[in-house]
Amino acid sequence: MTDVLRRGRASLAFSFLVQGVAFALLVTRIPAIQDRYGVSDALLPAFLAAVPILAGVGSVTTERLVKRVRPSRLLRWSQPVVLLALLGVGAGERMVELGVALAAFGLAVGVLDASMNMLGVSLQRSYGRSIMLSFHAAYSLGGILGASLAWAGAHWDLALWVSYLPVVAVLLPAVLVGSRWYVDDRGAAAGPEEKAGEEQAVAFKWLLPLCLVMTVAYIGDSTVSNWSAKYLQDVLGSSEQLATVPYNVYMVTTLLGRAIGDLGVRRFGAVSVVRGGALVAAGGFAVVAVAPGAWVGMLGFTLLGLGLCVLVPQTFAAAGRLFPGASDAAVARLNVFNYVGFLIGSPLVGALGDAWSYRGAMVVPMVLVLVTLVYARSFAPQPDRYGGGHERPRTADVGRGSNGL
C-alpha cells in the first residue's frame, strides 16, 4: 500500500466529512433560514425541493463532464462552491439572493456527490478491499459535527452568517490544500476487458436494481430526518426536548455501522451485508410502527441507523463492479436516485400520515426496504456486460479477501 493511496484516502475522507458538515448546517437551520428571508410555509417546500432537483441536474452533468475532466478536478472546485453557497445562504437578505445561493448549492452538491463517490470507487479498486463505507462514515461524522455547530448557533441566537462564516473560513482553505492529494487513477487498475468497455454506454437495465435500492435507502433516510421528531412527539407522546434525540441517535448509529461495515463486507461479502442491513432496517421500521412509547420508538430509530447505513455505500461500490470500465458514468447516473428518494420519502410519509395514520405510514418504507432483498444478488460479481457473457474474475468481489475490489 503506497503513501500516495493512503494520502488519497485521507484527503477524500476529509472531503466527505466537510460535505457532511455543510449539508447538516443547511438542513438543520431551515427554520432560521425561513425566518431570515420571510419564506412562507406554502413556498418553503418549493425551495426545499429545488435543491435535490438541481443536485440531480448537477449529477447528470457530471456524467458528461468526466469524459473530459477528471473527477478529482471536479471535486477540487465543486466543494469550495458548496461552502461559499452555504455562506451565501446565511449572508443574503432578499428572496432572490436565497434562490441564487440555493441553486448554486444544489448544482454544486450534485457534482460533489458524484465526483466524491467516483473517487471512492476508484480508490477501493486500487486498495483491493472494501473501504467505501469508511468514506460514508466520515460523512456521518461530519453530519454530527455540523448539527452540533448548528445547535450552538441556535442556542446562542447567532445570525446565520455569524454561524457559517467561521466554519467556511476554516474548511475552505483546508479542502483546497487537501485536494492536492486526491488520487484519480481511473482505468489504471482495470484489466483489458474493462479498458475495452470504457467507451461503451452504461446499460441501464443492469443498473436499474441498484437505482431502486438507492431510492429505497433515501426514502428511509428522509423518513427519519423529516419525521422522527414529529412522530415521537405527536404519536408517541414524548416531550419536545426528547423528540430531538432520535435523529441524533440515528446519526450516531449510522456512523458506528459505517465505521465497522467494511470489516463485515470483507468477512461475509457485500450480498450478506446488504441483506442483513435491509432486514435490520425493516425491523427498525416495524418497531417504530408498533412502539408503545418514546423509548421503544428510539430503539426503532437506532435499528434504522444500523440497517440503512450500509446500503448507499455498497450500492455505489456495486455500480463500480458492474461497469469497471465505465464506473464514473455509472456512479453519476446512480447518484441521481439519491435525490429521487429524498424527494419521494418525506411527501410520501406525510401524505400517508395525514390520510391514514403515521403508524401505518411507517409500514410503507418498511416494505420498500424489504424489496432490497430481491435485488441483493446485484451486489455480487456479475457476468461481463461488455461481451463474452462469462463471469468476471474474483477480483471484482469486494467481499472476499484481499483480492476484492
TrEMBL record:
It is a multi-pass membrane protein. It is found in: Cell membrane. Residues 387-397 have a biased composition (Basic and acidic residues). The chain crosses the membrane at residues 12-30, 42-62, 74-92, 98-119, 131-152, 158-183, 277-295, 301-323, 330-350, 356-376. Signal peptide: none annotated. It comes from the Bacteria. This is Integral membrane transporter. The lineage of its organism: Bacteria, Bacillati, Actinomycetota, Actinomycetes, Kitasatosporales.
